[in-house]
Amino acid sequence: MNNFKQKVREFYKPFYDNGDKAHLIDHADDVCNLALEINRDCSEKLVILASYIHDIFNATDRKKHNILAYEYVKNRSDKFLKELSDKELELVAHAVLEHRGSFKGEFFSKLSAIISSADRERPDVAKIVIRSMLYNNADAQDVYEHMLDKYSTNGYAKYPTVYQEIFKKELQEFKKEVDNISVEKIMDIWKNRDSQ
């Protein structure tokens, strides 16, 4: 499977080359690695494909990147997708469509829940702050507002059941830490990011 993963990574890497610093190929690598780690029931091939496809249009249109990726998959737009059965294609298409933290519906499949979970990353405040600072050009006030809006106890980020089961204790601590975060703490994490 490592050979397949490497081929998929190399194929989709150019899509990530013009992304913001928080959405380069290393983010897709992280999503893939965590998705494979938490996967119990899905085809590894589909986990790998959905992981590397989920953000391929992030640099093109941040607000609709998941919809563009869904359409890309549905149109069998590349050699990997042409090899999938209709059922496999549906699973991958919905996984990339439903990966965002703002997704409100029910997941189409376990694959969707796994990709969404992996895209949330492990509940690690420092890592989320660093990625957010990269995305927001180190605007600590903007990151502070984003962290509270998305990741706090009352934030909009949806955590799939599989994520809640695996990271139950860590997620509770993470949310408490976000609830109490400050611009100063964000700046401290950012200044010390190389030691994180």
The count of domains is: 2
What class, by secondary structure content?
mainly alpha
Per CATH, which architecture of the largest domain? Answer: Orthogonal Bundle
* Biggest pleated sheet: none
Arithmetic mean pLDDT: 93
Q: State the helix count.
A: 12
Order of helices and strands: HHHHHHHHHHHH
Q: Low-confidence parts lasting 5 or more residues at pLDDT below 50?
A: none
The CATH superfamily of the largest domain appears as: Hypothetical protein af1432
Alpha carbon gyration radius: 17 Å
Enter the CATH topology name of the largest domain. Hypothetical protein af1432
Helical fraction: 55-70%
N- to C-terminal distance: 30 Å
What kind of oligomer do you see?
single chain
Task: Give the C-level CATH assignment of the largest domain.
Answer: Mainly Alpha
Number of strands: 0
Outline: globular
Share of β-strand residues: under 5%
Sum up the structure in keywords.
Hypothetical protein af1432; 2 domains; globular
Question: Would you write up a description of this structure?
Answer:
The chain is mainly α. It has 2 domains: 2-120, Hypothetical protein af1432; 125-195, no CATH class. It has helices spanning 2-16, 25-38, 44-53, 65-74, 79-82, 86-97, 110-120, 125-135, 140-151, 161-166, 168-179, 183-191. The longest helix is centred in the first third of the chain and has 15 residues, at 2-16.
SSE diagram, text form:
Blueprint: H1 2-16, H2 25-38, H3 44-53, H4 65-74, H5 79-82, H6 86-97, H7 110-120, H8 125-135, H9 140-151, H10 161-166, H11 168-179, H12 183-191
Helix pairs in contact: 1-3, 2-3, 2-7, 3-6, 3-7, 4-6, 6-7, 8-9, 9-12
